[in-house]
Write a structure and sequence with these properties.
3 helices; single chain; 52 residues; 0% strand; 54% helix
Length: 52
């Protein structure tokens, strides 16, 4: 697979936190506890950096 193709498909969604390894550490509930109201902004920022 070409490198730019894998980069285009790389993103983080809230549902991803219900998958391993995140689920073993508390999943989406724990992420909300840690990041609170900043979660959406953090995910958006991460996705912007990952897509660059």
């Amino acid at each position: 697979m070409p490198a730019n193709t894998s980069q285009a498909n790389l993103s983080i969604e809230k549902d991803d936190f219900e998958l391993a390894p995140f689920s073993r550490e508390g999943g989406l509930g724990k992420v909300h506890q840690v990041f609170g109201g900043e979660l959406n902004r953090i995910i958006d920022e991460l996705n912007g950096v990952l897509a660059a």
